Amino acid sequence: MQTFPRIQRGVALITILLVVVIATVLGVAMVRDQNIMIQRTRNFFNQNQARQYALGGEELSRQMLWEDFDRGENRDYLQEEWAESGLQFEFEEGEVQIQIEDLQGRLNVNSLGKVGPASQQARMRFTNLFAELGVDQVYVDRIADWIDADINVRQLGAEDFEYLALEPPYRTSGQMIVDISELRLLLDLDRDTYEALSPYVTALPDAESELNINTASAVVLQSISSRLGIETADVLVTTRDEQQGFESVTEFLQSPDVAGMGISDNGLGVQSAFFEIRVRARFRERFAYLTSIIQRDPLDGSIRVIYRNSSKKIIPITKNSYVESEEKTGV
After folding, report:
1. CB of 113 closer than 8 Å to CB of 148
2. 136 and 99 in a common domain
3. Which of 40, 196, 214, 263 has the smallest number of Cβ neighbours within 10 A?
4. Residue range 157-177: average pLDDT?
5. Cα–Cα distance, 66 to 136 (Å, whole number)
6. Do 261 and 129 share a structural domain?
7. CA–CA separation, 325 vs 42, rounded Å?
8. What is the pLDDT of residues 148-160, one digit of tens each?
């Protein structure tokens, strides 16, 4: 019988061992890559499910606003179900938290683009609001110049040639503001000023939208007249909330704290069409965020979404408190 020399048998054994090692390494690598792929697929599925939960939260909010309209009160106030803070709904392996805000409880910056008497009324309200917040009055004119299509500079405003001198240069919009963050582009408007303004102003596509006196804060409410101070506005808000809102603008103007001030009912209302929905959804360990602006037709109650943003994180601090932060994730 032929036998291999010992050295050849050693080489063969080493070769076999190398083959086994290589096969083992390749097998481990394949299993690892497969596990990574499975985990990625699971994360993708969970994230997509969280997004669907967020859209479900939006749809649930729309249903709540439709039911509110269907009750036929023809007014909106802060004691209704949709206005409750920290609405939370739990689902299998997840939850949805919802916050709905009436955007007509704020001053609409696009109203500064109106002309005639309506323009003067809008300017008066913003002037009063800025005075209460300690914001420079120049921004009233600068917002108006940013919106209008001409190049005529208002007394304290700014037009294209001033913005083109900046680095980098850009032009004014020449149309209605789409998102309130656009105010950061105004000449010399810094972050502190923007943060002081943002809780009290909004950018609605309807420049004629009325201010809802039933949902406006005291700071916003005092802006409707230079004679209506913040102390009186605080009293009005307390009285309003105790009686679950005013039935009409007339009732508001006839209330003891307002009667005799000569406040016009133009641009005031008790029913709203524009709402902001903020949703925080969780499925398993994944989260999704959605901020939507919807418009509810005051005649038939039909609802349409006019804006969605999934880059705003809504972080619950307490059960009834939310903080928003910008995160450019493109989620």
Report:
1. yes
2. no
3. 40
4. 92
5. 40
6. yes
7. 27
8. 988 888 888 899 9
